[in-house]
Amino acid sequence: MQDENVKVTATLVDHPPVVPAFAYRFDAPDRSIVISGDTRPCENLVKLAHGADVLVHSALYVPAVDRLVARVPNAQDLKASILAHQTSAEDAGRIAQAAGVKTLVLSHLVPADDAEVTDQMWSDAARVHFRGTIIVGKDLLEI
User: Fold this and answer.
1) What confidence tens digit (pLDDT) does each residue in 82-107 have?
2) Residue 50: exposed, middle, or buried by beta-carbon count in 10 A (0-12, 13-18, 19+)?
3) H helices present in the chain, as ranges
4) pLDDT (tens digit, 9 = 90+) per residue, 5-60?
5) Contact indicator for 34, 13 with CB cutoff of 8 Å
6) Disulfide engineering: 137 pairs with which of 52, 53, 81, 107, CB 3.0-4.6 Å?
């Protein structure tokens, strides 16, 4: 879709069993923003985000997964599913670096409600591979 204010581009991302799953790029005259949607790492997203100002990417903090799944009876199945279908914060940083984006916003955080996982821990995980600005997304955050 394109009009005089914005061009919107979409690509398929890899988030089984959800098919199709999409990422979106919004190009305006003064900025470009890519939203990953739910996905595990995939090359389509790197291509879509190439040179964008901002990449908003879903993120998983792997060291906290065991605490998250401990709350449910099918813990091992849920853990396997989460690890297979999500992108770690470290890999989100890797994707942002490969795409050459300026700012990475970690969003749709898994687990979202673990008080032991600080914003600094999310940032440090993404910083392993990404050298740009990192923001840990919060509901209603404006940047």
Assistant:
1) 999 999 999 999 999 999 999 999 99
2) middle
3) 43-49, 65-69, 75-85, 89-99, 119-127
4) 999 999 999 998 888 999 999 999 999 999 998 999 999 999 999 999 999 999 99
5) no
6) 107
